[in-house]
Amino acid sequence: MDTEDQVDAIVIPKRGLRQGIRSGAARPDDQDADGLSLELLYPGYFGMFSLPNVDLLVACQKNYNDWVFDYASDANGRHPPAGSRRRADGIAAGYRQGLRGRLHPLHLAGGKTLFRGLLRPHLGPGARGGHARFHACGLQRHVPSRLRPPTPDPLAAYAGSAAAIQRTLVELLCRGVADRFPNLKIVVAEFNAGWLAHWLARLDQGVARENRFGRGLFMELRPLEIWHRQFYATTEDDRAAILTREILGVDNLMWGADYPHSDSTWPCSREVLSELMAEVPAAEVQKITHDNVAAHYGL
Q1: Strand partners, 233
Q2: CA angle 99, 287, 44 (to 5 degrees)
Q3: Looking at the 3D structure of the chain, how many domains does it have?
Q4: The pTM is what?
Q5: Containing domain of residue 227, as a range?
């Protein structure tokens, strides 16, 4: 075996990673295979939010936003992107590049609240109709190892992933954020939505008790009313969300394929949707799979 043969022998081929994941120009081929005309891309580099070095975190976010903009630009408008949150100047730059929204971590360091620690200084445009997104996968602030809980059972963690957003949703719905920014639209992304109808009913009951006994900020609107005004939830393979759509609001649900995650319905989305939407009126199917996302993101 000569030197050239030795070099060839140690090359590890790339396996299990579709070209459409690496290349924006190849992504439309995967969309065509799944029957999709257009997708909005949510950020995927979630681990950056746990970095303890803030300067490094901001640099990673900037690089990610630049990369995803170039990735989307190669696909002739087939997958417009949302950006990761940066500092105020970076957010503005992201919107100039055509990013369709901002993604924020679920929790903030130093005990700050979303109302006082994040949205007030950074969402001036939000009061006039901006977007914020919250994502389940790894969008946690940095927590020192000594403070981290024991590793949970993976099945319990998977089935209970919606719990990660519930405290944040209470803050958004009930602790002044939605009231302060009534035109801000918030997408609860990739938690599915079948749990939300029951959870919002419980939240309504809790608010009624707080109002009755004077515990906490008095709320004139019910959480469900605020939800209908400002909130959206995405759903992938979630029949329970479809069955509770009258409670959550047909106008407040958006379907997504979640490509390329292991939860994705790709490349069988049409078959999955035919089961999910069984006996659902065609006009409502059109809203959940097309019209709502087009209107919300201006596509």
Answers
A1: 188, 253
A2: 35
A3: 1
A4: 0.80
A5: 16-143+156-297
